[in-house]
Amino acid sequence: MRGKLHAGRSGELVSQAREVAGVKVLVHKAEGIDGKGLREFSDRLRDKLGSGVIVLGCESGGKANLLVAVTKELTGRIKAGSIIKPLAQMVGGGGGGRPDLAQAGGSQPEKLDEALAAAEQIVAEQLG
Description:
Elements: H1 2-14, E1 18-20, E2 23-29, H2 35-49, E3 53-60, E4 63-70, H3 80-90, E5 93-97, E6 101-106, H4 112-127
Helix pairs in contact: 1-2, 3-4
């Protein structure tokens, strides 16, 4: 049910994407969702966004979960793993993945807001 709620909001959220160095970047803290739900949610957002970078975070089971999705045509310029690593460190964890999708977890969910707030700056640095 929560997945359906997030699916319904995906169009609204995509309109909040900001442009960073010519690339659309959407950063969002999802409530009431787990790591698997983040992947499903990112797929819906990526379909609606078209081209860009999506950074999602949530707290689940007392841990911070992060996900970065980069649309395929941008992976030559920016990799999901290069964005997730510094974010994961901020929440006391680590992670990795493919150039277009990376996930991380951390033991400090209280720092999730701080990590998400830094996401646009990290994307800007990666894009040069």
